[in-house]
Specification:
Elements lengths: L1 H7 L2 E8 L3 E8 L2 E4 L9 E2 L2 E3 L5 E3 L1 H5 L8 E2 L12 H11 L3 E5 L2 E8 L2 E6 H20 L3 E8 L1 H6 L3 H9 L2 E8 H8 L11 E8 L4 E9 L2 E10 L4 H20 L7 H18 L4 E10 L2 E8 H7 L1 H18 L6 E7 L6 H10 L4 E3 L7 H31 L1 H85 L12 H13 L2 H12 L5 H29 L1 H6 L9 H13 L7 H11 L8 H32 L4 H11 L2 H5 L10 H13 L7 H9 L5 H23 L1
Helix pairs in contact: 4-6, 7-13, 8-9, 11-12, 13-14, 14-15, 14-16, 15-17, 17-20, 19-21, 21-24, 21-26
């Protein structure tokens, strides 16, 4: 069964209608029939074949378009000669009216006498049909991509009745097309509308009316249980589609003759041009109300340009349409059926597209439903393609049944089948084991790789954390050392009353200079300065003043250098718009220190502050705008502190002008540092100098410094602890709030 299926996939199942005027081919695909489109994009191919010199053959529309120049070597109507007609004289008479080529019958063989390049050549009918079918096979293979073609051929009912099909079967075989069967056009049309699917065993009479280009055929098909039986058939050459074309030719020629006093029908070339234009006009009038006819140099060098309306055409065709209805009456009389016995009407053939003819047929058989949804040119080929699919399906079912019986009855086949199945199962098991093994190996590789990546990531994180902890410990150690050195220098300065007379209070300017010096010096400089101050007989005042002077000179020099550097990079710094970065406590401390070192009035102050922060280890991406905004925020915090201090100033100073201040100073001087750090319930009053230093420290270290603020303020007051500074600030705040409440009341 597998080999048959794969083989059938290379087959194209087609239906062929080899008409005298046109060839139509359809193929069955995805459960329905579709018409094959030729290389020019048309669904129909004219049955014209031109034999040129050197075995050059032209088929279809190119041959029809060049008929004016190639009348002597172009064959038309060739399928008519396949069947043996009782009225051959009628066929030859109609043929000679259309073509100048002579038809010769020699020993039951039909030959056409052509003139090719001035020489007379005889071409037999079999050669013509084989070339047409070769064209069909190549077209189907090009469209479907199949290597082989299986087909059902649809022919007129007369060829079925005469049982003269040997020539067509021979031609199909020689052309490389596998023929399933030959069926009548009427049955093909019924298959296209799927009338075989009607359930039940009720008989129904279907009238199939075909109006082709050169012939007509009227048949009655009896359907019962999905089977078709042809009851009767009537056909002929008169009143065909070409008769309507001739009618339009007469209309155009009469109008041309009326205008130009010349009849184009007298010239064979002009008549061919008229016929081509009239066929096109006939098709257009089936869908539109008016058409324009134009022919260059129709006759005697005169152009044709006229219009024809559908109304005019139908008026001229009244008698012709009535004649087209006569076959219906003839076949009803022949079968002795009444009009009411016809249940369905199936139209096929290009001539049935004429609207008035359809209406006339419907009016003649009023109780019958008309089936005309499928294009009349294609309906026969579509039905033949569906019949080909059904026959192929039944053939496969029959073959499958034969194989199944062989499998069931032959013990050798059973044994062979069992061995094949065992071999397949073993191969399947082996492949499954290999796949499982590869999957397990791949999974283990992924696990090992994931573990390696996790270990590497953990190692990198631990190394980064170790370095971070080391850096943090080193930084904390530096901070502690710096804090200790600063505290030591402050203690030395305070013990010397900031190098003033011991009886006089500390000079605030000197206190600020020393605080600035403490913040400015590095850890090494602080150590060196403390060592100098601790030496015996050291002039501490001179050393401090010398360091202060040196600091001022370095600050001025640094300002100048930073101003020059910042001027060079001012354009780049101002153009870069970086996103807002979060300020760290170290950066805020650097900014506060820079604002003290470079006060307002310094040239390019903010650029200088920016360069100072970068050089001191701050974020290099800080812009001048960021620094100015942060300084503004710090200034707003200082303003709040200054407002609070200004409100407390009078209250605080008046509170410390009492006589007990000197006694408290004496007691406070006797306390050691360790005793001051103890949480004693007894609160020592603040002196005026302590209050001033406390206010200066609040301005120097704003609230934006965070938790380190109060540690730095407490360092400025050696006699006070961090807790006492916080309590003093809260006390002053409560006093300000109470005063504001009193003023409001």
């Amino acid at each position: 069964m597998t080999s048959i299926t794969s083989k059938d996939a290379n087959f194209a199942l087609v239906g062929i209608r080899l008409g005298a005027s046109n060839i139509v081919v359809a193929y069955f695909k995805d459960g329905r029939s579709e018409t094959v489109v030729n290389e020019l994009g048309d669904r129909t191919t004219p049955t014209f074949i031109t034999f040129n010199e050197g075995n050059d053959i032209s088929i279809g529309l190119p041959s029809k378009q060049n008929l004016v120049r190639n009348q002597q070597n172009t064959i038309i109507w060739s399928p008519h000669f396949v069947e043996k007609h009782d009225d051959n004289d009628v066929l030859l008479t109609n043929y000679n009216q259309k073509s100048p080529i002579s038809v010769i019958e020699n020993e039951n063989r039909i030959e056409f006498s052509l003139t090719i390049d001035g020489k007379t050549t005889l071409i037999n009918l079999e050669t013509v049909i084989i070339n047409l079918l070769n064209y069909v096979r190549q077209l189907v293979q090009a469209v479907t991509g199949s290597r082989e073609v299986q087909a059902v051929l649809s022919v007129p009912d007369k060829l079925i009745q005469t049982n003269n099909q040997d020539l067509m079967r021979t031609c199909m075989k020689k052309s490389g097309i596998e023929l399933h069967s030959i069926i009548s056009d009427a049955c093909s049309a019924c298959m296209a509308y799927e009338l075989d699917k009607d359930s039940g065993h009720v008989e129904s009479n279907v009238l199939v009316y075909r109006l082709g280009g050169s012939t007509y055929e009227c048949s009655i098909i009896r359907t019962v249980g999905g089977c078709f039986q042809t009851i009767a058939s009537v056909n002929g050459f008169e009143n065909s589609g070409d008769a309507f074309t001739d009618l339009i030719i007469d209309i155009i020629a009469d109008e041309f003759q009326k205008k130009n006093k010349s009849d184009p029908r007298l010239s064979s070339r002009s008549l061919l041009k008229l016929r081509a234009c009239s066929e096109q006009a006939k098709h257009i009038l089936s869908t539109t109300a008016v058409t324009q006819c134009s022919i260059d140099a129709l006759h005697d060098g005169i152009d044709l340009d006229c219009s024809i309306s559908r109304l005019r055409f139908e008026g001229a065709a009244n008698s012709l349409i009535n004649n087209c209805l006569k076959p219906i009456d003839i076949i009803l009389d022949k079968t002795q059926l009444q009009i009411d016995d016809i249940k369905l009407i199936v139209l096929c053939g290009g001539g049935t597209k004429i609207p008035k003819l359809r209406d006339a047929i419907q009016d003649r058989l009023t109780n019958a439903d008309m089936l005309s949804s499928i294009n009349g040119d294609e309906v026969i080929a579509l039905g033949a393609a569906r019949q080909c699919y059904i026959e192929n399906k039944y053939a496969k079912v029959h073959l499958s049944t034969v194989f199944d019986r062989a499998y069931a009855l032959d013990p050798r086949i059973k044994r062979q089948k069992k061995e094949d199945q065992q071999r397949k199962d073993d191969e399947k098991l082996r492949r499954k084991q290999e796949i499982d093994k590869r999957r397990q190996e791949q999974k283990q590789k992924e696990i090992d790789e994931a573990n390696r990546i996790a270990e590497e990531k953990q190692r990198v994180e631990e190394e980064a954390k170790r370095k971070q902890d080391e850096a943090k410990r080193e930084k904390d150690a530096q901070k502690k050392l710096m804090k200790r050195e600063k505290k030591q220098l402050r203690d030395l300065c305070k013990e010397a009353n900031y190098f003033n007379d011991l009886a006089s209070p500390p000079n605030l300017k000197q206190v600020e200079q020393i605080e600035t010096l403490i913040e400015y010096l590095s850890i090494e400089d602080l150590k060196a300065l403390n060592e100098k101050l601790k030496e015996e007989n050291a002039d501490q005042r001179s050393i401090i003043l010398s360091e202060v002077k040196k600091m001022d000179e370095q600050i001025q020099q640094s300002r100048l250098e930073l101003s020059q550097q910042s001027s060079a990079s001012s354009s780049a710094s101002s153009s870069n718009s970086s996103s807002k970065l979060k300020w760290t406590a170290d950066e805020i401390e650097l900014l506060v220190k820079a604002l003290r070192i470079y006060p307002a009035g310094v040239q390019n102050r903010w650029l200088v502050v920016q360069e100072y922060i970068k050089r001191s280890g701050g974020n290099p991406n800080r812009t001048v705008q960021d620094i100015m905004q942060k300084a503004k925020d710090i200034a707003s915090g200082k303003k709040e502190v200054e407002e609070t201090i200004s409100s407390l100033e009078n209250i605080a100073l008046n509170a410390h002008k009492q006589s007990t201040i000197l006694e408290n100073q004496a007691k406070l001087s006797q306390l050691t540092v360790s005793e001051r750090d103890l949480d004693s319930p007894i609160t020592t009053p603040w002196t005026v100098d302590e209050q001033r230093i406390f206010e200066q420290a609040l301005r120097t270290y704003p609230a934006t410094l965070g938790a380190s603020r109060w540690d730095q303020i407490a360092e400025c007051l050696p006699t006070r602890s961090k807790k006492e500074c916080l309590e003093r600030y809260k006390e002053l705040a409560r006093m300000v709030q109470a005063k504001k409440a009193t003023n409001k009341s």
